[in-house]
Amino acid sequence: MKILIIGSVAAGTSVAAKARRNSEENEIVIYDKDTDISYAVCGIPYAIGGEIPDFEELTPRDAKWFKKRYNVDIFTSHEVIAINHEKKEISGKHLITGDLFTDNYDLLVFATGSTPKAPDAFEESNFSNVFQVKNINSGKKVKSFIENKKPTTAVVVGAGYIGLEVAEQLKERGIKVIILQRGKHPMSHLDWDMSIRIEDEMVKQGIDFRPEETIQSLVGDTQLDEVITNKGTKLSADMYILATGVRPNVALAQSIGVKLGKAGAIATDNTLQTNIPDVYAVGDVAESFHVITGKPIYRPLASTANKMGRIAGDAMTGGQLRFQGVLGTGILRFFDLTIAQTGLTEKEALAEGYEVAVLSNIKPDKPDYMHGKEMVIKAVADKLTHRILGVQIIGPQGVDKRIDVFASTITLGVTAEDLFHMDLAYAPPFSTTKDPVAYTGMALTNALTTAPLITPHDLMELQKNNENITIIDTRDPKSYEKNHVLNAINIPLAELREKASTLDKSKKTIVYCNKGVTGNASQNVLRSKGFKEVYNLSGGNKNYQEIFKHSK
């Protein structure tokens, strides 16, 4: 049997490696129009910035290595142009010599990846100082431009993973950076009340962030001299980075009748086989499905590509591996912040019809005496089943450890109660005695059973609608005087038992402290005193003030 793979980055080479491990009998051939194979795409921004000294570190394997290790033939600079699936034959062109070639197959794998999108204004342009980060060669061009032209200013278009990573690296090289974003907030897949914390980091780092601003027209010949935005602003920079997402490379697959899914990428079954027998699709060209909803999604991530490749290589050679979906787990470093997400966000959960409990949990990753630093953990749970649906975390340290725990447990369908009972490792250099993961489970359990939470946004809506509510700030008077929730009265927890009788027990009551713990204790006091409807403000005054600042 001959397995022919089109594409040789994460997914394609994973197919080949696993298929070879399963069988020495099959012939395995890979074609790729690029010059590099199996490279670390996600490391490119750091090589541009010099944090990774040499691009060669991102390309540790070449075709000769793969041939020796796996007996797989890889042909780089070979573009497959057409496929005759009835004859099971491909044809293409060697991009260096111009020679044409043909080959045949028994099994065909599309690992053709994705292509960066460009804003409409750039579709027909070709400027020497405009770049997209898509492969090793494109990364080398950016680095070469920086080293040879010594730019001092840059415009980055897009505030997703690549946009923020590149912006960080450019700023670290002393380049003044402006970021333009189509949406209102960076990392638009996150909930906005988490994204705003990235904006705070931009201010801290001197990044000029311009939300809801897009490029409409260009001025320049061979070099882009100036852009004009939808707000009428004229911007001039030495270099421009376009980081506005990617689209799957599906044209070749569609030419033989391969069907796309609802997410716009190639639809497959759990072996990664397409609607056409003997034809597979893996990596950025293929659609995934969500572990929680079971619905198709498109999340082009290197971790998913590697997983898909291994599963397809196993399944097509008689193995039992099957694709089980993704949670869309992602993580990003942006200067002093780590930004991570897994599962459904609040907005996604609501769109899916879930009635949710939302906890904003502000906790240090380890004790203060071990120099712990606060993380903001936003957790979303289903009120009906108590299942954890998703988590977002932003903080200076300790985020990666917690997001992986949450991703593991969400995959297994755990409830809020389960989180609290997990036996997590503790020692002062690594965690607090009650780890933030366990505390999230404990607080969510309370919220889902006896002690409901209210989000800052929902409280603001009540205030906006002039609802007849009581808001109690349970902190000390000095903290209250510094800042407090609009229309809140100050009754410290130590005085609440005595003064509870002066309050209307029938009114909806919201209590809060600085971050939530004392608020919960106050909530319990009022509940025991016969108050009918008492809510604790999720994340306390600290979370409220952050959100209030950005909602003006």
From TrEMBL:
Keyword presence, Oxidoreductase: yes
InterPro entries: FAD-bd_OxRdtase, FAD/NAD-bd_sf, FAD/NAD-binding_dom, FAD/NAD-linked_Rdtase_dimer_sf, Pyr_nucl-diS_OxRdtase_dimer, Rhodanese-like_dom, Rhodanese-like_dom_sf
Pfam families: Pyr_redox_2, Pyr_redox_dim, Rhodanese
Keywords: FAD, Flavoprotein, Oxidation, Oxidoreductase, Redox-active center
The name this protein goes by in its record: Dehydrogenase
Taxonomic superkingdom: Bacteria
Family the UniProt entry places it in: Belongs to the class-III pyridine nucleotide-disulfide oxidoreductase family.
Organism listed in the record: Pseudolactococcus chungangensis CAU 28 = DSM 22330
PROSITE patterns: RHODANESE_3
Keyword Transferase among record annotations: no
Domain Rhodanese, first and last residues per copy: 465-549
GO molecular function term, any single one: oxidoreductase activity
UniProt cofactor(s): FAD
